[in-house]
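During the reporting period the student researcher (J.K.) took over the structure-prediction task from the postdoctoral fellow and processed the backlog of single-chain submissions. One of the processed entries is reproduced below for the supervisory committee.
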Amino acid sequence: MLKKWMIVLIGFFLFTLIANAQNAYLGPQLGWQKAADADNSKFMIGGAFRLKLSQAFGMEASVNYRQEQYNNGAVTVTSWPVMVTGLLYPIPVLYGAIGVGWYNTSFEYSPTILLLGDRNETEQKFGWHFGAGVEIPLSGSVESPNSILTADLRYVFLNYDFQKMPGSPGLKSDFVMFTVGLLFNL
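J.K. obtained the following structure tokens:
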């Protein structure tokens, strides 16, 4: 019963935010990300929904797809980060960002590691992030543009547990991500 009331309360809160928002935007995102100890940097793809609550405050919800490899391909990590970010605009085109993320992550181990008795797994984990970015109006007025170009750099704190890989508990999986989005006014 409490769960149902929490869902109704959160829904009401989100509806109120959207109704009072000055502008709402939706569109695709492309990005680049690199974890501290990952083998290589990778591109990522996703989408974002952004609300401008006032000239100084906003919110963004985004979903992306990312994949990376560790320990010379011994493990492949695939994740669907769902991020909620608060945006603070000191000037209209520049913003600071801070938020949380939920990461549904799959670990696929190489056949050598699977022979040791381990198996592929999926886990959910929470992390947090901060960063900064720019928001450039492309069409319409500066106060209420029809479309915006966004670009930001975020540092994400998310440490995976690599205990199953021999000699790897010290691997760092926090990552830096750079995203560019083209968002359209709803």
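The committee noted the following: The chain is about 15% helix and 60% strand.
J.K. will present the remaining backlog at the next meeting.
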